[in-house]
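Can't paste images in this forum, so I'm doing it all in text. The chain is below; anyone willing to post the predicted structure tokens underneath?
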Amino acid sequence: MVKIRINETRDKIVSVADRLFGRFGFQKTSMDEIAKIARKAKGSLYYHFSSKEDLFKEVVQNEIGDVKLQLSPIVNDEESSAEKKLVKYLMTRMDTLQNCTNYHETLIPGDIDHFEFMNDVRNDFDEWEKFRLTKIINEGVEQGEFHIEVDAEVLSDVFIMILKGLEIPLYIQGKYEQYLPHIEGMTKMLTKGMS
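Text version of the structure:
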């Protein structure tokens, strides 16, 4: 019973922090404000999280977790072709990340140095994606859909670099809606180039 209340308290803190960080940003949100809105003592926040950075990291990890939940069924879909999986994966990734406002804050040029504490979260997501993209590409090669002359892992790295290169213009500079119709075309062009 006590463990359930501890988890409920932690979840409440994370939920409130998610909303406040998303609305005001990491810099302008204080632990005092989070405690006040969550109706918890400030000490309760520090019981669960050692610092504001630790709490923010948890919030972003939850956003990334949601992205992973959206992408996993695509990777594991045994009915779709590798090409369809890859297009759907790339489109779903970009669409789902559009709603990850706290993740977006870690992309802002100039603030990146301040978010060094997020490097392990970024690296974990990169490795997670690399494994899944490599799996899709290898399936495509095995099924004769893709004809590539480079290692699938290297190609996965290139896809990740392309996707990350799009994040700042799409999410930070607000060009997502403007370019959304063209992203699918670019994605299909990339997969056709592997056929």
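The chain has two domains: 1-49, 53-192. The radius of gyration is 19 Å.
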